[in-house]
From TrEMBL:
ATP-binding recorded as keyword: no
UniProt xrefs under InterPro entries: AdhesinB, Bact_metal-bind_prot9, Lipoprotein_PsaA-like, ZnuA-like
Species, as recorded: uncultured Rubrobacteraceae bacterium
UniProt GO cellular component terms: cell envelope
Cell compartments where the protein resides: Cell envelope
Keyword terms: Membrane, Metal-binding, Signal, Transmembrane, Transmembrane helix, Transport
Gene3D superfamilies linked: Nitrogenase molybdenum iron protein domain
Family statement drawn from the similarity comment of this UniProt entry: Belongs to the bacterial solute-binding protein 9 family.
Name of the molecule in the record: Manganese ABC transporter, periplasmic-binding protein SitA
GO annotation, biological process: cell adhesion; metal ion transport
Transmembrane portions of the chain: 20-41
């Protein structure tokens, strides 16, 4: 018994130590940003010579800035495919990318929750653009987990993601006035591409029988998708992957799926599949053969060089996966 107590104590101390190290690292990174960046701390844009250096957070925003910036902008994305932005912590390499950037672009709405302090400090040194800033507050969904916070997964409503184009065009134009007309033109082309995507999604989802228009995933990344395109959405972990699903959540969801004879549920590329597999097992225990319909991109896009590397390609692949499993 004494051995067990010592093991428990060692684990507790180790956990506290790891937490202290993480906090200390974030503090050091913030100090580096505060002391290492030039520009007088105004956070205002100044015209740059040569190619704009832009640093972005998620893959969707990386693609957004590349689509609009073209050859006039070099984009460094901090988070790659399969990375969970809810849990992502900045590294020293990330701080270097933030320091070297002429402008930083991020989602906001507490998506990059572990980077809030660093992004705030960055905004005191150079332009830091929250690309979702133009979305009217009445269009945002509330968070059931965090009071006074909004659901950050706005990219799964294409009509909302369309509004992220203008803040990027405006910021790039301030940094490179000679390229303003090109940024504006590329922004309009990208808006048209998003409009086409929106029509595609509407048509595809309408092909699913109404009783099967239920989307079940690991966490609530698809609430905007459900509202815009007419699907009931259920997730095990809430809108942030920091929340954990319990056995009661699993059983309640399994009851719903079995009673309604839903064909399939889905795993996510940036979330471990264990919770979804637990729901599948629990549903089968109730006598209903539930399939895992495939893997959806939620908080990050696909691998470099694939169609899903882009926002529109990722969204299309998701919809094809959903309709293929539920039709």
């Amino acid at each position: 018994m004494n051995v067990r107590i010592r093991e428990d104590e060692r684990e507790r101390v180790g956990s506290l130590w790891r937490r202290w190290v993480a906090v200390a690292l974030v503090g050091c990174l913030i100090a580096v940003l505060a002391g290492g960046c030039g520009g007088g701390g105004s956070g205002e844009a100044e015209a740059v010579e040569g190619t704009i250096q832009a640093t972005t957070t998620t893959t969707m925003i990386t693609d957004l800035v590349r689509q609009i910036g073209g050859d006039r902008v070099e984009v460094t994305g901090l988070m790659g495919p399969g990375v969970d932005p809810h849990l992502y912590r900045a590294s020293q390499g990330d701080v270097a990318a933030l320091q070297d950037a002429d402008a930083v672009f991020y989602n906001g709405l507490f998506l990059e929750g572990q980077m809030e302090d660093i992004l705030e400090k960055t905004s005191e040194q150079k332009p830091a653009v929250q690309v979702t800033e133009g979305i009217p507050e009445e269009e945002l969904l509330g968070s059931p987990q965090y009071e006074d916070q909004f659901d950050p997964h706005v990219w799964f409503d294409a009509t909302l993601w369309r509004t992220t184009v203008d803040p990027v065009v405006e910021q790039l134009s301030e940094l490179d006035p000679d390229g303003a007309s090109e940024f504006e033109q590329r922004g309009e082309v990208y808006k048209a591409e998003i409009d086409e995507l929106h029509s595609f999604v509407e048509e595809e989802i309408s092909s699913i029988p109404e009783g099967q228009r239920v989307l079940v995933t690991a966490h609530d990344a698809f609430n905007y998708f459900g509202r815009q395109y007419g699907m009931e959405v259920r997730g095990l972990q809430g809108i942030s992957t920091e929340a954990e699903a319990g056995s009661r959540d699993v059983q309640e969801l399994a009851d719903f799926l079995a009673e309604n004879e839903i064909k399939a549920i889905f795993v996510e590329s940036s979330v471990p599949p264990e919770t979804v597999e637990a729901v599948q097992d629990a549903t089968q225990d109730k006598g209903w053969e539930l399939e895992i319909g495939g893997e959806l991109y939620s908080d990050a896009g696909g691998d470099e060089g694939t169609e899903a590397e882009t926002y529109t390609g990722m969204f299309r692949e998701n919809v094809e996966t959903i309709t293929g499993a539920l039709r």
